[in-house]
Amino acid sequence: MGNQHSMESPVLKPLTELSLDWDLFHTQADAHLGQVYVRLRADVDLQAYWKAGWRLSGQLYGPHCSRAHTLPAKYTLVDQGSGSTLLARANLPDPCFWSAEIPALYQVTLQLTGPGQPQQKQASFGMRSIPIKGRQFFWNTEPWTLKATSVSNLSDWTADQCRQQSLALIVDEVEESLLEQASQLGTWIVASVPGNEADICQQLVELVRWPAVCMAVI
Predict the structure, then answer these.
(1) How far, in Å, are 75, 87, 128 from residue 91 at the CA level?
(2) How would residue 134 be classed by pLDDT, with cut points 50, 70 and 90?
(3) Positions of E strands within the chain
(4) Cα–Cα distance between 30 and 155 in angstroms, integer?
(5) Which of 129-138, 169-178, 180-189 is the least confident region?
(6) CA 92/CA 156 separation, integer angstroms
């Protein structure tokens, strides 16, 4: 009899033991439909994990606004299939866009489930778009001029006072608490992003979900 060789599937390291990065972003949206994505990345290809039963899911609930009455609704994040990353998408009909006047936010609950220990993550998210045509910013189809001042030039000023003066805050050391406050109030943030190429890319990914950030200075 000849030798028999059995083919064994490679043993996967538990997904929750890997270094995982969560991305929350939206594609180009209009007044009728917005598409919000959550993506899970690691330093390995996650296709084998998807085939092993790992899935992304979750919900968006909103919009919520600190200065206006809104009628919130729930939207489901649906897994988008096999790939090098795990990806889920929610379709938002008639999305509410973030603005300084109406800082609308959605509350996001993300879930990672599979054959191992599940994980859950919560975050705030807002949708906004600032297109550039030529050398001009546009906001809500109208030309927009950004006025900003450095945090270091202010004395006893708050993010809300800057909003009242239509001033964006130039921030050298970006803290999540400030980004959250500014996104809730409707205060624009110009964020300084230092470091090498890898550091800058990671910081930009993290800044994307905060609608108050209108510009990053590299």
Answers:
(1) 7, 14, 16
(2) confident
(3) 21-26, 33-41, 55-64, 73-79, 86-93, 105-113, 119-125, 132-133, 136-139, 142-144, 148-150, 168-171, 189-192, 213-217
(4) 39
(5) 129-138
(6) 39
